[in-house]
Amino acid sequence: MTKLRIVPLGGLGEVGKNMMCIEYGRNIMVVDVGIMFPEADMPGIDYILPNWEYLNDKKDLVRAVLVTHGHQDHIGGLAHFLKDFNVPIYATKLTRGLIEVRLRQEGMLERATLHNYAPGDVINIGPFAVEPYHVCHSIPDTVGLGIETPAGLIVHSGDFKFDHTPVDKWITDYNKLAEFSVRGVLALLSDSTNADQPGNTLSEAVLDNAFHQIMREAPGRVIVATFASLISRVQQVVDVASLYERKVAVAGRSMIENTAMARELGYLDIPEDMLISLAEAERLPPQQVLIMATGSQGEPMAVLNRLATDRHATLRIQEQDTVVFSSHTIPGNEELTHSVINRLFQRGADVYYHPLAQVHVSGHASQEEQKLLINLLRPRFFVPIHGELRHLKQHGKLAREVGIPEENVAVVENGYPLIFAEEQMTIGERVPGYYVFVDGALVGEVGPQVIQERDKLGQSGFVTAVLHYDRQKGKAVGQPRIITRGFVFTPGAEDLLSRAADVIRSAASVKSGTSSSKVEDRVERALSDFFYRETRRNPMVTVAAVEE
Amino acid sequence: MTKLRIVPLGGLGEVGKNMMCIEYGRNIMVVDVGIMFPEADMPGIDYILPNWEYLNDKKDLVRAVLVTHGHQDHIGGLAHFLKDFNVPIYATKLTRGLIEVRLRQEGMLERATLHNYAPGDVINIGPFAVEPYHVCHSIPDTVGLGIETPAGLIVHSGDFKFDHTPVDKWITDYNKLAEFSVRGVLALLSDSTNADQPGNTLSEAVLDNAFHQIMREAPGRVIVATFASLISRVQQVVDVASLYERKVAVAGRSMIENTAMARELGYLDIPEDMLISLAEAERLPPQQVLIMATGSQGEPMAVLNRLATDRHATLRIQEQDTVVFSSHTIPGNEELTHSVINRLFQRGADVYYHPLAQVHVSGHASQEEQKLLINLLRPRFFVPIHGELRHLKQHGKLAREVGIPEENVAVVENGYPLIFAEEQMTIGERVPGYYVFVDGALVGEVGPQVIQERDKLGQSGFVTAVLHYDRQKGKAVGQPRIITRGFVFTPGAEDLLSRAADVIRSAASVKSGTSSSKVEDRVERALSDFFYRETRRNPMVTVAAVEE
Question: What pTM, to 2 d.p., does this model score?
Answer without folding.
Answer: 0.88
